[in-house]
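User: quick one, sequence for these tokens?
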């Protein structure tokens, strides 16, 4: 993928712009701003040497709310990859061979094709910059592969396909050749109706895996401290609470990892049926961050465990 100065020189990424417009929102994804608070602040015990994540996830998740909301609305309302009406009018002209072969119309359609490819390339480039700059993907693996690498591989494949289609447009000399290329641009890539929400949901899943990893680090410290006082009166109560915490961590990690795998496996060929997977993953990620979800549940267990352990002295 080739980046021009227009993208690499930006001082603020696309996600960052979204964040500034949605600071007041507190939910993970669309439609739940009034019901789901932002992620709880996790406070490590004084004795725990645990690194706090580089940045708070609340602003990031608030920014995702607007992005995913608009994208899901788009894929639910159109089968044409969210093309503007004027483009659809021009594409309809492809059904009229006599109109298509006229030199003026032929040139206009070549311009339309180039514009549609360029629009998608800009979106892919912007998403790639955001993935590369996302602190929420640092150290997050899916089956041994960095999640960022999996997302970038997806975007790289789309970019390669767009480059191939651009070459086909440039070399098109016959009406049928141009017809085939133009009609394939949207359905073959689904950048606007599939790739964008997939990337956003995969990053959100990565953020939740990172949150579970942070809880895991605290669990290890608390469990180690508890095991130093196995004869203490509170030991069994501590171990029970630590067991609940461990179960919450396992649930959150498995769910978020599976969600990332599910959306990254989606392809344009499965559209529009795979919209159900996008909606299901969104719901699952939302549940992980809900007040009674495993991430908040695990976080809420830590103060009680810390209090029990403080009574050893």
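Assistant:
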């Amino acid at each position: 993928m080739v980046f021009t100065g227009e993208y690499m020189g930006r001082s603020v990424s696309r996600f960052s712009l979204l964040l500034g417009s949605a600071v007041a929102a507190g939910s993970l994804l669309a439609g739940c701003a009034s019901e789901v608070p932002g992620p709880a602040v996790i406070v490590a015990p004084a004795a725990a040497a645990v690194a706090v994540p580089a940045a708070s996830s609340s602003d990031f998740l608030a920014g995702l709310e607007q992005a995913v909301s608009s994208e899901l609305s788009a894929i639910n309302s159109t089968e044409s990859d969210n093309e503007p009406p004027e483009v659809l009018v021009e594409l309809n002209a492809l059904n009229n061979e006599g109109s298509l072969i006229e030199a003026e119309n032929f040139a206009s359609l070549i311009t339309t094709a180039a514009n549609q490819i360029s629009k998608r390339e800009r979106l892919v480039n912007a998403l790639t910059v955001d993935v590369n700059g996302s602190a929420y993907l640092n150290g997050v693996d899916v089956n041994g592969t960095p999640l960022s690498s999996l997302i970038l591989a997806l975007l790289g494949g789309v970019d390669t396909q767009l480059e191939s289609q651009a070459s086909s447009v440039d070399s098109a000399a016959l009406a049928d050749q141009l017809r085939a290329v133009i009609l394939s641009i949207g359905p073959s890539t689904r950048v606007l109706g599939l790739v964008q929400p997939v990337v956003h949901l995969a990053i959100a899943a990565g953020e939740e895996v990172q949150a579970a990893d942070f809880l895991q680090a605290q669990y290890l410290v608390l469990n180690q401290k508890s095991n130093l006082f196995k004869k203490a009166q509170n030991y069994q109560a501590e171990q029970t609470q630590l067991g609940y915490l461990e179960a919450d961590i396992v649930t959150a990690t498995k769910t978020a990892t599976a969600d990332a795998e599910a959306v990254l496996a989606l392809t344009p060929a499965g559209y529009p049926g795979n919209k159900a997977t996008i909606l299901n993953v969104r719901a699952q990620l939302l549940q992980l961050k809900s007040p009674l979800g495993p991430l908040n549940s695990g976080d809420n267990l830590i103060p009680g465990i810390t209090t029990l352990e403080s009574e050893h002295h």
